[in-house]
Design brief:
By secondary structure, the protein is α/β, with parallel strands linked by helices. 27% of the residues lie in helices and 24% in strands. Keywords: Acetylation, Cytoplasm, NADP, RNA-binding.
């Protein structure tokens, strides 16, 4: 089979289009003939070796490595303990590695079957970012219908799905932040009630004005830097802030006692942690599949490229030249 592999850390040029043996599914696993493969920022961080640094505390990867976290395709073989009836079914799967290939292994408890009419490319853009957004809102923030939500970096992959998921969960007001007017227009098009800039010191006051001084109940934090600290200026009493990322770095340390005055909660979400809770992964995947089927969630696909051009996909994503998810076609 054809696959993308890297044998050393570095830029997109380390990605090699190679022939590898077809993997064999073990107990509780299936082999998927892939039809569409999603590209994510964690794939880039793996390639750069960022997860192999001690300070990341996540264990890293072993070289050589086939990256990739999400696929759509058809099950062609099952491992021990898996119902053979799943063979031939179209599925959407989340995995820890190995998606950048014409055939990939997935745990049966981390995939869902799809309707035959489901769009493979659209669904392949969902699992990693969509599951992260769902877990942050439902499991970590315990979002309730009628609450107000602020999504930082709402034009990004996780943020754009979080806006739609929050609305589908019954949020009253959804705020999305973005750095440019064109990106804020994109956020409004996703269904956000308000799109605001986060690069001025006054943005928390704007959120307070639009919530009659109450602030928001939930914040999904993706930016870091000085924005992280500013979040608490517009987080309501009993509000929950969930750290999903920090594109500007961690910023200043938070004084824990700051949370006490308004009984606020600070949490974090890291997707691989939930691989130990596969029932939550499947719950999220089912929510996403149902949301797309009903039309309340619309995946944003920025580009579709051949698997052989994965290096270009990484370069485009790093330069932020594509708005939406990049999907790879393993058959081109």
């Amino acid at each position: 089979m054809k696959a993308i592999q890297f044998r050393s850390f570095g830029g997109p040029e380390v990605l090699e289009y190679v022939d590898l043996p077809t993997p064999v599914p073990g107990p509780g696993e299936v082999l998927i003939d892939t039809s569409a493969i999603g590209v994510n920022f964690p794939d880039i961080r793996e390639r750069l070796g960022m997860y192999n640094r001690p300070e990341t505390r996540v264990g890293g990867v072993t070289l050589p490595h086939v990256a990739g976290l999400q696929v759509v395709g058809r099950v062609s073989e099952t491992g021990e303990g898996v119902d053979p009836g799943v063979v031939g079914r179209k599925v959407m799967a989340l995995m820890s590695k190995g998606a950048y290939a014409q055939q990939a292994i997935a745990r049966v408890n981390m995939l869902v079957t799809l309707d035959e009419m489901a769009n493979d490319v659209a669904m392949a853009g969902l699992p990693c970012q969509g599951v992260t957004a769902y877990l942050a809102l439902r499991v970590c923030a315990h979002l309730q219908a009628g609450e107000n939500v602020l999504i930082q970096g709402a034009a990004g992959g996780v943020g754009s799905l979080a806006v739609q998921i929050a609305k589908a969960m019954g949020a009253q007001l959804v705020f999305g932040t973005a750095s440019t007017e064109s990106r804020r227009a994109f956020v409004r098009g996703l269904g956000a009630d308000h799109a605001i800039a986060y690069d001025t010191p006054q943005w928390p006051q704007r959120v307070l004005e639009l919530t009659a001084g109450r602030g928001v109940n939930v914040i999904l934090e993706t930016i870091g830097g000085e924005v992280f600290d500013q979040n608490f200026e517009c987080l309501a009493t009993l509000g929950r802030c969930v750290v999903v990322g920090s594109t500007r770095g961690p910023g200043e340390a938070l004084a824990p006692r700051r949370l006490m005055a308004k009984a606020q909660t600070l949490a974090g979400v890291y997707l691989p942690t939930f691989f130990q809770r596969p029932a939550l992964i499947r719950e999220a995947l089912e929510f996403l599949a149902d949301g797309v089927s009903s039309g309340v969630i619309k995946p944003v696909i920025g580009a579709t490229l051949p698997l052989s051009e994965t290096a270009l996909a990484h370069a485009l994503l790093e330069r932020r030249e594509v708005q939406g998810v990049i999907v790879l076609d393993p058959n081109l």
